[in-house]
Amino acid sequence: MGIFGSFLAIITLLLLLTSPVAGSPVEPLPPILKQGMAGEEVAHLQSKLLELGFYTDAVDGKFGTQTRLAVMHFQQATGIEPDGVVGTLTWQALREYHEQPELSRSGGNERKGQQIAAFATRYLGTPYAWSGQTPGGFDCSGFIVYVLEHFGITVPRTADEQFAVGQWVSRTELKPGDLVFFSTYAPGPSHVGIYLGGDLFIHASSAAGEVTVTSMKKEYYVARYLGARRLLK
């Protein structure tokens, strides 16, 4: 056969071994999903996140802010860069997490923090109301009182009092559910929000006139950041 013939035979054999068998199903790559998209795949994603406790809103097939935040919480819980984009790694983690229900039902503090953050996003768009602490209207500390009460956690009514409870957390160690404090209209801790992950926090903002999500990197808040407290031991 000769050297060339032997080499050709080996290459042919390798091609046969590595080629898919005719008629065998080839699993398609999962779609990349991100904010602004819509459709059945988004609804499937929302259903998965709802089942695992990371998503609390309607399964409507629309990839909006709350879906993105839920994805980020899930990514943080599974060690994936929390960018809010659902790629191959996130789809794989969703499948594996689903196959390990003991993880999804964990009662750990990190999991509880994610639940607090997810619950808080239900109230996006709720009007700001001075001294308010109901879904009819919140001020910043009233929003904290209301959200934490849902989880059986009692905190003082005002931001400066809330700043005195819990455990101090450094900026680099923030986790979803931590309280973040700022000095805004008055010296000392005069504004508070709930950290969501990905350098985002949710708060009742008098400037926005509603409960909104803001970046921790926004210049206004960077200059006024005081610190964070963790209430989950």
Automatic annotation (TrEMBL):
| Pfam families according to UniProt | NLPC_P60, PG_binding_1
Its ancestry begins with: Bacteria, Bacillati, Bacillota, Negativicutes, Selenomonadales
Q: Which UniProt keywords apply?
A: Hydrolase, Protease, Thiol protease
Q: Which residues form the NlpC/P60 domain?
A: 110-232
Annotated GO biological processes are: proteolysis
What family classification does the UniProt entry report for this protein? Belongs to the peptidase C40 family.
At the top level, the lineage of the source is Bacteria
Protein's UniProt name: Peptidoglycan binding domain-containing protein
Annotated GO molecular function terms are: cysteine-type peptidase activity
